[in-house]
Design brief:
This protein has 419 residues and is α/β, with parallel strands linked by helices. It has 8 helices and 22 strands. The strands form 6 sheets. Strands 1, 2, 3, 6, 7, 8, 9 and 22 form an 8-stranded mixed β-sheet that branches. Strand 7 (108-113) and strand 8 (119-123) form a beta hairpin. The longest helix is centred in the C-terminal third of the chain and has 25 residues, at 285-309. It is globular.
């Protein structure tokens, strides 16, 4: 990495906003192309891997899928799952394998189009100009909590999953985890393993088995080409889909919420509000459990068909059998019976720094085709389902970065003048 001190009036052929793995992957390609650019990071490089994950976090994708341009995983456990600090070290070290020009501790307040082409980029270090700008900030910016969270009694401790580190952060007593995506289910397990009394409110998130017929399911899916199918083949609404929950902890295993119930976790449907004395839930618990299981089994069906079609020798395996069924659907939980609430219902995007750029749709989502917006010279990278299922993870970032870098090179060939 080459630290860059920005000055008012500096001009770059390309500005990359965001110093995570996507921004660094794009920088690698621009370095190879000789494009004068800078990666602007509000905090420090790849800090979210260290600062935005809990202590026992692990990747849910196998280590072999960790590959960035010129930087494949070459550790001793390709089929394992790196823990939080290992992921941080691996991605942070990436910047030191090439001359990434990086300005850390600099925030971007607004990007504006310039008459005749290019952009003005207003930052905390001064005002820059650029031929092209790429957003590499991802799509998860501001933690979400429901409006009614403000009505929860003050003696109930509240925390967003982004802030959760370990059970010791929380006061003694039962914990309500709201949300059953990857973060919610893994945090619920973390608390369960720490001996906490856990309540879990489910949404309609799908799950996937960790292993099936002798191989990690995500390895099967990669071999089947599932991660490489363009989003256009699924419909652009796929970009809003929820990822499947599973864990890489202790070498990887299923997350089976029915098994959680057997072990003492109290399960509920979606959390919908509050009375004077109780949390309220809808009646979707049975349907949500069945849906998650049906998705996991449908993935196994696809793997079975692939094995048969390709005549692969793989061990047979018995199918999943539900170990627990709800005999009642609880609709309330007294606030007095909860000491802490962890909100794991996601994030909303903050694109305020884009100013008046016409790069968002009517719902405020990035509007692009494979990362290229309709504003000439403005690009996105690192978004979930930017081009394929793999786009939001290490698996396909290298490919996406190569594509966007190629489009930036085309813009530079047009030799946009700086007024």
């Amino acid at each position: 990495m080459i630290p860059v001190a920005l000055n008012d009036g500096d001009h770059f052929e390309a500005v990359i906003v965001g110093g995570g793995q996507a921004g660094l992957a794009l920088s690698w390609h621009l370095v190879q192309q000789g494009v004068r650019h800078v990666v602007i990071e509000r905090d420090t490089l790849v800090h979210e891997w260290r600062d935005g994950r809990w202590d026992n976090f692990t990747l849910v994708t196998p280590n072999w899928q960790c590959r960035l341009p010129g930087y494949p995983y070459d550790g001793p456990d390709p089929d394992g799952f790196m823990a939080r600090d290992e992921v941080y070290a691996w991605t942070r070290n990436y910047a030191d394998t090439f001359d990434a020009p990086v300005a850390e501790g600099v925030s971007v307040s607004v990007v504006e189009e310039r008459p005749g082409g290019g952009f003005t980029v207003r930052t905390s270090a001064g005002t820059l100009t650029a031929d092209t700008v790429t957003s590499a900030t991802g799509g998860y910016h501001l933690p979400v909590t429901p409006a009614w969270a403000r009505e929860i009694p003050g003696d109930v401790f509240q925390l967003h999953s982004h802030e959760y580190r370990n059970a010791a952060q929380l006061p003694e007593g039962p914990v309500l985890v709201v949300g059953s995506g990857q973060s919610g289910t893994q945090i619920a397990e973390d608390l369960l393993l720490e001996g906490r009394d856990v309540h879990l409110a489910l949404g309609r998130a799908p799950r996937v088995a960790r292993f099936y017929r002798g191989k990690d399911c995500m390895t099967w899916l990669a071999e089947m080409g599932v991660y490489d199918v363009p989003v256009s083949a699924h419909g652009l609404a796929k970009r809003e889909s929820t990822n499947h929950y599973v864990t890489g902890r202790d070498g990887g295993r299923d997350i089976d919420l029915r098994q959680f119930a057997v072990r003492g976790v109290r399960l509920y449907g979606r959390a919908v509000g509050l009375t004077d004395s109780a949390f309220l839930f809808d009646d979707t618990l049975p349907d949500n459990l069945d849906y998650a299981d049906s998705v996991a089994e449908s993935i196994k069906n696809d793997i079975d068909r692939y094995i048969e079609r390709e005549e692969i020798h793989a061990p047979e395996e018995e199918r999943y059998s539900a170990v627990w069924q709800p005999t009642e659907v609880p609709r309330q939980l007294a606030t007095a019976d909860v000491a802490s609430v962890i909100w794991a219902i996601g994030f909303r995007a903050d694109w305020s720094w884009l100013g008046n750029l016409d790069v968002l749709d009517h719902q405020g989502h990035p509007l692009h085709t494979y990362g290229e917006s309709k504003v000439p010279g403005f690009f996105f990278i690192g978004l979930p389902w930017m081009h394929t299922w793999g786009s939001g993870r290490f698996h396909a970032i290298a490919r996406d970065a190569e594509h966007v870098a190629g489009r930036i090179a085309v813009r530079e060939q047009q030799q946009i003048p700086v007024a």
